Amino acid sequence: MNLFLDTKLPEFSKTAAEVTLPEDPSGWQQEILQEIYKQAPFIADYDPSVVMDRLDGERGTAFGHIEVGNKTELNVSQGDPAAQVAGIRHVRIPIIVRDGKLFPFDLMVTEDAKVFPLTERRLRSALFRPQVFDVTSRTPGDQSLISALSPPYRQNYGFGGGGATMSAGMGKEGGADPTPTRSISADDMAKMRAEAAALPKSAPKAVAKAGAKPGLLGRAAAFFGKKASILEAVLPTALESDYTRTAESLQEVAEWLVHNKEAMAHPLKVLSGFQPQAARTLTEKVAHALIPSVIQVARTNEGYVVKKASAQYWHPTIQRVDRGELVRTVGAEVALLIDKTGSVTSAMGEDLASEPEEQTESDTPKLITDYGIYKVQDQEGKHLIGFAFPNLIDVEGHPLPMTLFTNGSQTAVQGEIVGVRVAEGLSVTTGRPKGYGAFYKVLPNGRVEAMVPMDLQMNFTGADGQVALVGHTMEGREIQVSIEQGIQKPTLADEQHLCIPEDWRWLPLEGTKAVSLVAHPDEYMKVAEIPLSVQLRGDASGSFSISGGPIEKVAKDERELLSMEDTLFYLAGLGVPPAIGIRKMAETIQRMAPVTVAVSRDISPSALVNEEAIKTASASPSFTVKLRQNLAKEAAFVPDPLAVDTMLSLGFLNPENVMTFVSYMPQLDEAQAHLGDLLVAARLGLREVPVYALERAMKGLEDVIEGLNVLAFQKN
């Protein structure tokens, strides 16, 4: 009988082959550079350079990286202060050579030291920055499409009594009781008391109580905010056939489950409790699995009620707890606060709304007449920050009353643009003249002179051997462009031949989206005042109603004649911190008129989401089947609990729980980064984990993430 575990690793099929390098190591660097262009053709859009840290030709080993950055006129590397000032980002693609074979270029390391698969989307995301030409501390805020669909789970756990939103830290799990990461200041408390005292006598007493006593939730994170298991969240909606398939795969590597027991213990315990889909409806199962956008705890005659809901799948769920359980989970102080005020409410997430700030003179939008970095507004009310070139010149050198704006993602060329100046331009992105773009020159005084954009599609070599670029101007005029020495400004040699000085550079605009920007300050103010809002009405009886676009999908009878607690619950679901909600309720009672409340998200009722999901599934019934990944065998060898839990959950993806996976996008990305770390270690010599198992796991997980991204963008 064998007393020891056989450590021979099983064979896994390769996802990519290694490349054999020449015997002479002096040619490795050039061979590596050529190979990156073969394996990742999109790298040609950037500026790659090979850096070899270690090279041993006799042993056939080497280690280094390919540094990739945006094409720019600044010659800087990662970590260079000049790069940080100019806002230039870099990523590194690991170079690992063992036994004369080069491992595939399928990984990249971001500036925050996270390892992700090397894909075009990942690379663009890592190198992209909203301010293409400069950095400023002022930004239009996070406009991420994914964060709007995936309620963040790292911060703002807990709920603030009377609208005081507290955030319990997630930096440490287990051990001592968590403590709030920030607290209510004395000034805040005084302000809340003053506002409560200013309420009319007829205002509901509950509002006054809530405004006077901000809550302190020392243990709320332990109760509601712990990082959940994706496997636990999706298993109630799993199909029995998927469970059987996963169990069979794990049985094939049963001996390794013991070897990897630290990472596999919890997932196996979760799987052992699997029950075929019970009588609970699809709506209830999905609602329980999603990360909540709002949590409310209220005292009743029978005990305490915990009410939760997600704005992206609005179906409030209720959990009843007794006082002993409440005290054990949130602490005696919070329980006492609930007893005194009746309820406490918390708006969850990092995308919470704020009240519009008063505008200062420096924030007043003005007609753009000077070059620089500006915050502008599009016709849909979204803020953009980018570079503005006023007073463009045409191919004949005549100044035009036109302004070019671009941030690397959107571009506008129009007669007038208004904006708020936020910074000077330090470095303008440059590229090789090709496609859609504009020529420009940085003048000695720091200003920039630019031409109207043109489209250059092909090269032309004349009889004299000189290369010219052929294309069209904005008005459709055919043009030939050549770079010339000895001239000071763009010159039209004949009707079709434009000569550009050699010190002029090319601003690439290819692939940017054309947008229409606000051209008058009055229009800017109207659009930008409150991009997303609802109307709140209330009376002295304590009854409230909410209306407006973000909540219009909710049935009318469900958002009218609401109690104070229900009103706070809906407002928090819309992303309104309870402290602001309370002030707005007091304001509408005092004014006896509707008030406008700025919100950060809309509410999508579960019935409508289910209806859309059915339509999507009917249009593409095989979509979720293609996304589903059976990585049970690979998970048996991965010594990381988060990665194992995530990999096993992918085998249960189906139309019923796809929204749950979308809500866990940040956790999927985190698991992918953990797998990337392990793959680098395995390629460098960590023999306990099969390289090819990690490669298959990363590829499978990335396929799921890409598919969920498609769903997220479609829903947006």
Brief characterization of the structure:
The protein has 24 helices and 29 strands. With 716 residues, it is α+β, with helices and mostly antiparallel strands.
Number of strands: 29
What's the gyration radius in Å?
Answer: 30 Å
Name the poorly predicted regions: 1-9, 129-226
Structural class: alpha+beta
User: Looking at the structure, what is the overall shape?
Assistant: flat
The proportion of residues in beta strands is 15-25%
Describe it.
The protein is an alpha+beta fold and 716 residues long. It has 4 domains: 19-127, no CATH class; 161-227 and 284-354 and 530-598, no CATH class; 239-276 and 620-715, no CATH class; 361-524, no CATH class. Helix content is 33%, strand content 22%. It contains 24 helices and 29 strands. Strands 18, 19, 20, 21, 22, 23, 24 and 25 form an 8-stranded mixed β-sheet that branches. Strands 12-17-13-14-15-16-26 form a 7-stranded mixed β-sheet. Strand 9 (303-310) and strand 10 form a beta hairpin.
Describe how the helices and strands are arranged:
Elements: E1 19-20, H1 28-39, E2 47-56, E3 61-69, H2 81-86, E4 90-98, E5 101-102, E6 107-109, E7 115-117, H3 120-127, H4 145-149, H5 186-197, H6 205-212, H7 220-224, H8 230-234, H9 240-252, H10 254-259, H11 261-272, H12 282-289, E8 294-300, E9 303-310, E10 313-321, H13 323-330, H14 332-341, E11 343-347, E12 366-367, E13 372-377, E14 383-389, E15 403-406, E16 410-414, E17 418-423, E18 435-442, E19 448-450, E20 454-461, E21 467-473, E22 478-484, E23 491-492, E24 497-501, E25 505-508, E26 513-514, H15 521-529, E27 533-538, E28 544-547, H16 564-573, H17 578-591, E29 595-598, H18 606-619, H19 623-627, H20 632-635, H21 641-649, H22 658-663, H23 665-683, H24 691-715
Parallel strand pairs: 16-26, 22-24
Antiparallel strand pairs: 1-5, 2-3, 3-4, 4-5, 6-7, 8-9, 8-11, 9-10, 12-17, 13-14, 13-17, 14-15, 15-16, 18-19, 18-20, 18-25, 20-21, 21-22, 23-24, 27-28, 27-29
